[in-house]
Amino acid sequence: MFDWIAGFLESGGALAIAALMLLENVFPPIPSELIMPLAGFNAARGGTPLWLAILAGGLGSLAGAWFWYHVGRAFGRLRLRALIARHGRWLTMNLSDFAMAEAWFQRHERAVVFFGRFVPTVRTLISIPAGIERMPQAQFLLYTALGSFIWSGGLALAGYLLEDRYEQVEHWIDPLSTAVVIGIVALYVWRVIRWKPDA
């Protein structure tokens, strides 16, 4: 996959960066931790200028997040409540949990959307509750864009500055990303085991 991404970025320029970052948000197996440092490395070697690589990466990420926002918005709160009532164990949530989570998200939605952009898997999924809760689109796009451009820009800049040693960015972030994903899976399994229906 590494060689394919490297070749695609080199030949496709800014459009390839945007397309891969969109895919990373819609279909997570292609990690931004690989895409954006490579884009920065290519910029250091005379490829797509760094500012354009960051712009393309941020816009691609924003487009992917907006897609999931509209999925959540179309699905809606009533359908989600019905789904929880029917399949609560596998969603690790009962209706009381949902009511508490809903209230918490409504209080902290801006921070959740912003900081969620820095966490693997979460950055894909966080757009769905934002859509379900009908967070104002302008706010959603603003905080998603801020988080996306900081994340994409930081990774691209690291790849640009490290140049030949850009793999160090991946080696540093990859174990952290893997640990977060393992933690999320472990928490999910624990919640499935501990789940109880509403009294």
TrEMBL record:
Domain (VTT) ranges: 30-160
Domain of life: Bacteria
Cellular compartments annotated: Cell membrane
Coiled coil: none
Keywords: Cell membrane, Membrane, Transmembrane, Transmembrane helix
InterPro entries xref list: DedA_domain (IPR051311), VTT_dom (IPR032816)
Primary site of residence: membrane
Residues annotated as transmembrane: 12-30, 50-71, 140-160, 172-190
Membrane topology field: Multi-pass membrane protein
Listed PANTHER family: ALKALINE PHOSPHATASE LIKE PROTEIN, UNDECAPRENYL PHOSPHATE TRANSPORTER A
Protein name (Swiss-Prot/TrEMBL): DedA family protein
